[in-house]
UniProtKB/TrEMBL annotation:
SUPFAM superfamilies: EF-hand. It holds the Pfam family EF-hand_5. It comes from Acacia crassicarpa (northern wattle). Keywords: Calcium. Coiled coil: none annotated. It comes from the Eukaryota. InterPro entries: EF-hand-dom_pair, EF_Hand_1_Ca_BS, EF_hand_dom. This is EF-hand domain-containing protein. Residues 17-52, 53-88 form the EF-hand domain. GO terms for molecular function: calcium ion binding.
Length: 91
């Protein structure tokens, strides 16, 4: 069952974010198209999602979803990242 979460971005308009939207934001955040997300790319993504402390939030995402501890979110870790964002970040 898809999960939809409501959050308030910085422009204070309410927006519904779901798994597809999170995946699209993360895909756009991969600026160098290497199919991996670095800390700086995650920072931009969570900032776009309305995080107040994007660097800290990006670090937390990386800590929780980076299973092989290489400092990047690879395609195999993306599902864990999306689940983490939807279940913890936007409660």
């Amino acid at each position: 069952m898809p999960v939809a979460v409501v959050f308030k971005p910085k422009n204070t308009e309410t927006e519904v974010i779901d798994e597809q939207r999170v995946r699209k934001i993360l895909e756009i955040a991969d600026e160098n198209n290497d199919k991996k997300l670095s800390l700086s790319e995650l920072e931009k993504a969570v900032s776009k999602m309305g995080a107040w402390c994007p660097l800290f939030r990006a670090w937390r995402c990386l800590r929780n979803a980076d299973a092989n501890n290489d400092g990047y979110i690879s395609p195999s870790e993306l599902d864990d990242l999306v689940r983490y964002i939807l279940n913890w970040y936007y409660r």
